[in-house]
Amino acid sequence: MHTCRNCNQSFQTELALELHLDTCQKGQLFCQVCGERFREGDATQDGWHYECPNEDCDGEGLKDDLYHVDDVGVPTN
Ligand SMILES: [Zn+2]
Ligand SMILES: [Zn+2]
Fold first, then answer.
1. In angstroms, rounded to a whole number, what is the distance separating the alpha carbons of residues 23 and 39?
2. DSSP H or E segment with residue 71
3. Which Gene3D superfamilies match (predicted)?
4. Most buried among 57, 61, 69, 70, by the most CB within 10 A?
5. Rounded Cα–Cα distance for residues 26 and 70 (Å)
6. Which ligand is closest to the CA of 57, given by its number?
7. Ligand nearest to the CA of residue 52, numbered in listed order
8. Which of 19, 21, 66 lies closest to 7, judged by CA?
9. pTM value?
């Protein structure tokens, strides 16, 4: 069993989990500098230092410029 560490949803295969992570709202971060949303994994290499993956933006730091979508309640489409 593979479980999403963001929303605790369980999946039969690792592939299914991978696909889910692309769309998991709870795993997404929001940059308040540029307004972009992106996967958590795109914003960090080591799970410690976070920075906005947008090259034109210098937003960085979890809970400084970057927030979990789930925490701030950014409206989703
Ligand atoms: Zn999830
Ligand atoms: Zn940004």
1. 8
2. helix 69-72
3. Classic Zinc Finger (3.30.160.60)
4. 69
5. 5
6. 2
7. 2
8. 21
9. 0.66
User: Which residues hold their Cβ within 5 A of ligand 1, which is an ion?
Assistant: 4, 6-7, 24
Q: What residue spans define the domains of the chain?
A: 2-72
Which sign, positive or negative, has the C-alpha torsion 26, 31, 32, 36?
negative
Tokens of 49: 């230092």
Q: Which residue's structure tokens are 């795993």? A: 27
Q: Which residues line ion ligand 2, judged by CB < 5 Å?
A: 31, 33-34, 52, 54, 57, 59
- Residue 32 burial class via C-beta count within 10 angstroms: exposed 0-12, middle 13-18, buried 19 and up: middle
Tens of pLDDT along 26-57? Answer: 778 999 999 998 888 899 999 899 999 999 99
- Cα 2 to averaged position of ligand 2 atoms, centre (Å): 31
Ligand 2 centre distance from Cα of residue 28 (Å): 13
